Every structure is written in structure tokens, then in C-alpha cells.
UniProtKB/TrEMBL annotation, chain A:
One of its GO terms (biological process) is transmembrane transport. It comes from Actinacidiphila alni. Residues 103-330 form the ABC transmembrane type-1 domain. Gene3D superfamilies: MetI-like (1.10.3720.10). Keywords: Cell membrane, Membrane, Transmembrane, Transmembrane helix, Transport. Pfam families: BPD_transp_1. This is Carbohydrate ABC transporter membrane protein 1, CUT1 family.
From TrEMBL, chain B:
GO terms for cellular component: plasma membrane. It comes from Actinacidiphila alni. This is Carbohydrate ABC transporter membrane protein 2, CUT1 family. GO terms for biological process: transmembrane transport. It holds the Pfam family BPD_transp_1.
Length: 351, 295
């Protein structure tokens, strides 16, 4: 019953190549069991894997193929797609002004949120990582708290906060001479994207704070002590010990932050619905509205469009490809940095 | 906001005693700066909490103020009953509990056999996991919607659970696989000698050993399921009474309602479980999240 247990802690047996190596690690003279026997031996493994295989197959792998098929049809989501249009949906996406505007907003969002958020999180992490700072757990909790909250609910609260009730943000800013007239923060096309970006930074900073703290704790204390003995000041320690020590974790953090912000949806959908007039539309809200358009009654934007599933699928597929290219490029970069670090370490240990 | 100078700059080790005792201000300055920025940081949340206690008039009058002139606890009752938050809350609890349970059950089982057993097709599965790890999430919602529709599950709580569990599968299986590889096999081998069955090995020995992983992944799945928006939104579009709190409050805004304080109360109700979990399991939440970059 348990005959199929192997020593898999090293990642399973090496690949079998050619008859002579077939019996490596097996008792000599005993042939490798046939495929039928091995299938039978693995029956419980298959049973335990069944939910995984079914779920991943049906909800991850199949949809990739299916969405490719949808891109070739003009279809409003009712019944089955039958109006074949070839690559017309892709042409339409490439020539769609609103898609590219949404694309631009998404990249603007990422281009501002990621550096500002990472810089803030890093500074805060360095401050809170100081062992002599009391109550640092408390501060960490406070700055982390918004990150565990639903972006949709955050958006509800900010929508109310930014509205003009009584002694509002506007009256205070006017009194402080920052602005000279009432601003409709979420209704003005010039301000809306910046408000969304600001809330985005606030909402997810906590993750990066925790990541950076984890990274800082992995830097050996001796390095700082050695730097102190060499007469290094705080700034020089930060520059020569902290930053190099965070190189690998930092790249991973950057990786996650870029991908996360390029996929922003909840916050924008609830806060503005992409409005006014697509001024805060991001790729995901645009795809959502194109795909489920008719059912879109809620939200502040008031944009109602006919569902256009083929177009939405084409846009989603196109954007998915772009994200995949970015992901793979980042993964390769990360691997190279790891390899070069390991190589450096190997040389040092070899000496 | 957080642009305070690192305190390491102002705590040099070799300062003469006279100087060190002198400016107590110098040592409390970081705390003052941190307290002020921490207060500003959670101000929007405190404002939401106080808004939930204000009367309609008080809400309009007090603007950014945090202290209600008159406390109206009844907002919570109104939100729970007349705004339908009660139903949304129950839906969200059911969905979250079921998602956590099935995600942990299925992914730990898959992670266990992938880490511990050898069978034809194992390498192919590992390759699938590696590839899907790099697939961006959320771009296949349209065919998934169609699939759920064909299964006849649309507009049900189970649709949301099913899709959430499926989406959580690859990451969690990967984490369990990595965990079981690091756990020693001694106990299992001893049990095998004693004639334990495959199921006993898994349920009696491996799963209890994986308790720390179950806890941190469970927390992670709990938070993401509770906070999820797109999946419950899409799969309950036709049946408002099946919606979760986030989706329900979102449509509540759309109804051009002016019940701001009730809306705030609803938000507070929806944030409460997360805040409670965070308060009691803060260390675990933080280490679960930090674990994502350490690997």
C-alpha cells in the first residue's frame, strides 16, 4: 500500500536515461516494474491529486485555451459564440483609444506607486528594525493594518472621506491656501488618477514593509558590527551593508509590487468605476466593463456598455501576454542575481 | 509621511554620559514623529469608525472630525437589518470558511503526494505547477464564468467557493510540497513498519506535523477570501442576496443612497473580523506574509 514512497527530499530520482542506468539505486537483478504496476502502486497518489488536477485543469488550464477561442468571435455572452470574426477583435483592441488610455493609466499607476511605496516602506522598515526602538511591533501593526483590509471597503470609506461634508478636506486646504476652489477629487479628470494612486500607495504599503523587515532581519548583525569597527556612520552602513544585503529580497519585492500594481482592479472599480469618462480607467476595469457591461449598474462612473466578450477576451489575452513577458523577464533577472551571488559565495568559500 | 531620520543616526554608542542624559527630547523625538505619522496613517480608518457612530446630521456637520456629537449605535442595527449586511455577512462567513477548508484539504493532500511519492506523471504535474506559477491571475474570468454557467452553479455561494479554491490551488500546493520535503520522514517510516495505511500516514502523521503551515496558509487564504471582490462580484451578479459584504456595500453605493453613516457601519462590520484575526494572530499573519519573499 505504501510501496510507492520514495526519498523525494532531493526532488525525486534522477531522470532515467538508457538501459544501463535503469537499475541505478535498485536492487540488481530486479527489473523496473511495468507501467501497469507503477500506475497501480500510485493509485492513492492519484486519488489525493484528483481535486488538484480537476480544479487546476478546469479553472486554470482550460480557460487559457477557451479564452483564445473567444477572441476569435464577436459575442455578447448570451448563447454560444457563432459569429466568427478572425483576428478582428485584436485589431479593434490595438486601435481602441480607451484601451490604450487605460493601459497608460495602469502603467502610470505602477510607475508612481511602486517607487514611492517601496522607498517609504524601506525607510520605515529601517526605522522599525532598530532594536533599541520601543513599541516597534505596535508601529508595525499600525502601518501594516490597511494591507489586510479589503480594497473594496477601503474604497467605500475613502469615497465618503473625499466627499464634501461640512468641515471637509477642501475647506481645510482652502484655509491653508493649498487650493483656491472646491475640488471634486474623484470627479475631476485631472485629479482622479492621482487620488487613486495615493490611496493605492496607502493601501498596500504594509506588505512591502513586512517584506523589507523580513529582509533586514536576514542581514547578519556582525556585518554592522564590523562596519562600526571600521568607523562607518549610519548612512554609510545603510549604503554599504543594508542595501547590498537587501539586493535579492529587494528584487523579489519589486517583482511582486510591479505585478500587483499592474493588476489593480478592486480599488478603482469601487472608487471610481474608471470614471469620470474613463479618466481613471485601468486595463482590468475596462476589461470587466467590456465583458460584463450590461450588468454594470452599480458604481460611480455610470458607464454602461453592451457586453462584448470577444473584445474583452482579446484585450485580456493581449494584456496577459504583456504581463507574462514582464514576469518572465523579472524571473530571469532574479535568477541571474541569485546565480551571481552564489558564484561569488562559492569563490569566497573556495579560497 | 514616514520620512523620519533613522534613529540609528541619533543613538551613537560612544557618547559621553553627560550628553546622553541631556536631551531626553532627542530620544523621544522619533516616537513623536512615529506616533504622529501612525495616527495620520490610520486616520481614514478611525474616521470610518466614528462615521459609523454619527447621526445623519452629525455626519454632514462634523466633516473630518473624529468625535461624534451624539452617538448613534443603532446604525449597526440598521446596517445589519435594513441594509442587508446581515445576509451579506453570513454569506461571506460561509464562503470564507468553506474556501479555507477545501483549499487546505486539497492542496495539502496534493502537496503531500507530490513531495513523498513517486508515480507516473509526477514530473508532468510539477512542470504544470511551474508554468502556471507564472501565469497572471484574473485574465481568464470570462471562460471561467462560462464554465460555471454550464455547470449550473451561477449565482450560488458554491460558485464563489469553487473558483476561489481553484485559484488558490497552485500556490498552496507548492507551499505544502516544499514544507513536506523539509519534514523528516522518520515518523512516517516507523509507522509504515507498524503497518499504517496510506491514509493513516497522511491524516494521522503528516497533517498534524504540518500544523504550522496549515495555520499560516489558512490565515492567508482566510484574508484573501474575505477580501475578495472580483470573484464574488462576477459570480453573484444576478442574485444580490447571495453577495458578500464587499460586493453588497459596493452595490449599496450605487443605489444613490444617502445613508452615509449606515454605509460606514457596514464597512466597520466587514472590517471587524479581519481586524480581530489580525489582532490575535498578528505574529502569524506577518510571518505568513513575510514567508512569500523569503523562499
Amino acid at each position: 500500500m505504501t510501496e510507492n514512497l520514495v526519498r523525494a527530499s532531493t526532488g525525486g530520482p534522477p531522470p532515467v536515461a538508457g538501459p544501463p542506468r535503469r537499475t541505478v539505486g535498485r536492487r540488481p537483478g530486479r527489473p523496473r516494474p511495468g507501467i501497469g504496476a507503477r500506475l497501480r502502486a500510485g493509485r492513492w497518489s492519484y486519488l489525493y491529486l484528483m481535486p488538484f488536477v480537476l480544479l487546476v485543469g478546469a479553472f486554470t488550464l482550460y480557460p487559457i485555451g477557451a479564452s483564445l477561442v473567444y477572441t476569435l468571435f464577436q459575442w455578447n455572452g448570451v448563447g454560444s459564440p457563432d459569429h466568427y470574426v478572425g483576428l478582428a477583435n485584436f485589431r479593434q483592441v490595438v486601435h481602441d483609444g480607451v484601451f490604450w488610455r487605460s493601459f497608460g493609466h495602469t502603467f502610470l499607476y505602477a510607475a508612481v506607486v511602486v517607487p514611492v511605496q517601496l522607498a517609504l516602506a524601506l525607510v520605515l522598515a529601517v526605522v522599525l528594525n532598530n532594536k533599541r526602538l520601543r513599541f516597534s511591533t505596535f508601529y508595525r501593526s499600525v502601518f501594516f493594518l490597511p494591507a489586510v483590509m479589503s480594497p473594496a471597503i477601503i474604497a467605500v470609506i475613502f469615497q465618503l472621506l473625499l466627499s464634501n461634508f461640512g468641515d471637509s478636506i477642501n475647506t481645510r486646504l482652502i484655509r491653508a491656501h493649498v487650493i483656491d476652489h472646491q475640488v471634486d477629487w474623484l470627479g475631476d479628470p485631472h485629479s482622479v488618477m492621482w487620488v487613486v494612486i495615493g490611496i493605492g500607495i496607502w493601501n498596500t504599503l504594509g506588505y512591502n514593509l513586512v517584506y523589507f523587515l523580513a529582509g533586514l532581519q536576514s542581514i547578519p548583525e556582525e556585518l554592522y558590527e564590523a562596519a562600526s569597527l571600521d568607523g562607518a556612520g549610519a548612512w554609510s552602513k545603510f549604503w554599504h551593508v543594508t542595501l547590498p544585503g537587501l539586493r535579492e529580497v529587494g528584487l523579489m519585492i519589486l517583482f511582486l509590487a510591479v505585478l500587483g500594481s499592474l493588476q489593480v482592479f478592486d480599488l478603482v472599480q469601487v472608487l471610481t468605476g474608471g470614471g469620470p469618462y474613463y479618466a481613471s480607467s485601468v486595463v482590468n476595469t475596462y476589461i470587466y466593463q467590456q465583458a460584463f457591461g450590461g450588468g454594470l449598474s452599480a458604481g460611480g462612473a455610470g458607464i454602461t456598455v453592451q457586453p462584448n466578450v470577444g473584445f474583452a477576451s482579446a484585450a485580456a489575452f493581449f494584456y496577459g501576454l504583456i504581463l507574462m513577458v514582464i514576469t518572465v523577464a523579472q524571473a530571469l533577472l532574479l535568477r541571474r542575481v541569485r546565480a551571481s551571488r552564489n558564484a561569488a559565495r562559492g569563490v569566497r568559500e573556495g579560497d | 509621511m514616514a520620512s523620519t531620520t533613522p534613529p540609528i543616526a541619533r543613538t551613537p554608542r560612544t557618547v559621553p554620559a553627560r550628553q546622553r542624559r541631556g536631551p531626553a527630547l532627542g530620544r523621544s523625538l522619533p516616537h513623536v514623529a512615529l506616533l504622529l505619522s501612525a495616527f495620520a496613517w490610520i486616520y481614514p480608518l478611525l474616521w470610518g469608525l466614528s462615521g459609523a457612530l454619527k447621526t445623519d446630521m452629525g455626519f454632514l456637520d462634523s466633516g473630518l472630525g473624529l468625535i461624534p456629537h451624539e452617538y448613534r449605535w443603532h446604525n449597526f442595527v440598521d446596517a445589519w437589518n435594513s441594509a442587508g449586511i446581515g445576509t451579506y455577512f453570513v454569506n461571506t462567513v460561509l464562503i470564507t470558511v468553506a474556501t479555507v477548508f477545501f483549499t487546505l484539504l486539497f492542496s495539502s493532500a496534493a502537496g503531500y503526494v507530490l513531495a513523498r511519492t513517486e508515480f507516473p506523471g509526477r514530473r508532468a504535474l510539477l512542470a504544470v505547477i511551474a508554468v502556471t506559477f507564472f501565469l497572471p491571475r484574473g485574465y481568464t474570468i470570462i471562460p471561467v464564468y462560462d464554465l460555471v454557467n454550464h455547470l449550473g452553479l451561477l449565482d450560488s455561494i458554491w460558485a464563489v467557493v469553487l473558483v476561489q479554491v481553484a485559484n488558490a490551488m497552485v500556490f498552496n500546493t507548492f507551499m505544502f510540497m516544499g514544507y513536506f520535503r523539509t519534514v523528516t520522514k522518520d515518523v512516517e517510516e516507523a509507522a509504515m513498519v507498524d503497518g499504517a495505511t496510506f491514509h493513516q500516514l497522511y491524516f494521522r502523521i503528516a497533517l498534524p506535523l504540518a500544523r504550522p503551515m496549515l495555520a499560516s496558509l489558512g490565515l492567508f487564504v482566510f484574508i484573501s477570501s474575505w477580501n475578495d471582490f472580483l470573484i464574488p462580484l462576477v459570480f453573484t451578479l444576478g442574485r444580490p442576496e447571495r453577495q458578500t459584504i464587499s460586493v453588497g456595500l459596493y452595490s449599496f453605493i450605487g443605489q444613490t443612497s444617502t445613508d452615509w453613516s449606515v454605509l460606514c457601519a457596514g464597512s466597520v462590520i466587514s472590517l471587524l473580523p479581519i481586524v480581530l484575526v489580525f489582532a490575535f494572530a498578528q505574529r502569524h499573519v506577518v510571518s505568513a506574509i513575510a514567508g512569500a519573499v523569503k523562499g
